Amino acid sequence: MKATDQYQGKHVLVLGLAKSGYAAARLLHQLGAEVTVNDGKPLAENPAAQELIEQGLDVICGEHPLTLLDKPIDLIVKNPGIPYSNPILEEAVKRNIPIITEVELAYHISDADIVAITGSNGKTTTTTLITKMLENSGRTPLVAGNIGVVACEVAEQASDDDVIVMELSSFQLMGTDTFQPKISVLLNIFDAHLDYHGSKQHYIDAKARIQANQEESDYLVYNVDDKEVVAIAETSSATKIGFSTRVLHPEGLDIAEGHLRYKQTPIIALEDVMLPGRHNLENILAAVGASILAGSSREQIQHVLKTFGGVQHRLQFVKKHKERAFYNDSKATNILATSKALDAFQQPVILLAGGLDRGNSFDALIPSLSGVKAVVAFGETKHKIAETAQSVDVPSIQVVDVLEAAVHAAYAQSEEGDIILLSPACASWDQFRTFEERGDAFIQAVSKIIN
């Protein structure tokens, strides 16, 4: 951990616990700050708060009183999920009190270079690919941020022989000030989290924070096929490495003559890449670029791309049985994600879709249903999805109540060469607590068929 005295004696309010708040509070206390912790959960139900009290911190639980700002506060470290419409944060802005997330704190103490990844889609896949590509490179990759361990906990343990691979959301990036990764990766920008940010421009501005403090000695790996990303890149002072799946990009990463290329040098043949989907080619190109810049070898990159079948619940290859391939894309909780999953396959697809009914229609899914062989709809939205499939004459449409029945119905009508794909286009909360639980249930149902 890098020595720093910038928090010594500072009065810091940590707003919201969870993993990031707990880690930030503990670290700030260690760095000599006078820390007050505030969390909405009552103390009796809050073991993390109880532990911090035992460590000597001032903890206020059960409410968010504005009186917290009555005593001098030099800095607020907020949980990323707490919106800036929170009354304490609104008042803090009026009083010009700086507000950060623990990602900024992690940067201040990190001895290791940081590779930071953001985008509306593909962050976890790209982060995982980069991490695997950096293995055996002579530097130990440490995963942090949205996946892995809280960023400041990783930074506390990292040495200059390590490299921190950090997946970052717009919520986390919005709370950065001096954050300056050695390599930043900007994948894409779609409409997302507008309820939190208030407008698409505010969302774009938050994403742009990933490169805002970079200099020419740093690198920005960015998607030249995304106009919002390009607009951000045009303002960047970093050395820019673009990637494209659509056009030749000789100074960056592209696809030509059946190969993925870096600065016109072939890296791997497309036919040797295990991870399916055109959208994943963007993630792969971004990961290859960042990994090369961080010191990975071509041999390690090739090994990863030949063997990596996907992140769990994100177009994850599950099993092949009697020439039918099962894929778990439970993370596809919206129509855009399911459309991308369907576009990933050339083979006949039997789609399993359904879940929580949020009141929306599924008309936006229609263009991606043209090549679908069958739809098995389940959950609250089963009839809506079935009606959408009927409108484009999907050859076979079945409606069942639960996911396990959908798996059995899909397999019963499948043939050799078919893809059986769970990509729900809906949240899981009608029948499952999380999309991970739903994906696990799919895998279990597949195992019952095979065994």
From TrEMBL:
Family indicated by similarity: Belongs to the MurCDEF family.
Gene behind this protein: murD
One of the Pfam families matching this protein, by short name: Mur_ligase_M
Gene3D superfamilies, A to Z: Mur ligase, C-terminal domain, Mur-like, catalytic domain, NAD(P)-binding Rossmann-like Domain
Annotated organism of origin: Alkalicoccobacillus porphyridii
Associated pathway: Cell wall biogenesis; peptidoglycan biosynthesis
One GO MF term attached to the UniProt entry: UDP-N-acetylmuramoylalanine-D-glutamate ligase activity
PANTHER family found in the cross-reference section: UDP-N-ACETYLMURAMOYLALANINE--D-GLUTAMATE LIGASE (PTHR43692:SF1)
Reaction(s) this enzyme catalyzes, per UniProt: UDP-N-acetyl-alpha-D-muramoyl-L-alanine + D-glutamate + ATP = UDP-N-acetyl-alpha-D-muramoyl-L-alanyl-D-glutamate + ADP + phosphate + H(+)
Protein name: UDP-N-acetylmuramoylalanine--D-glutamate ligase
Top-level taxon of the source organism: Bacteria
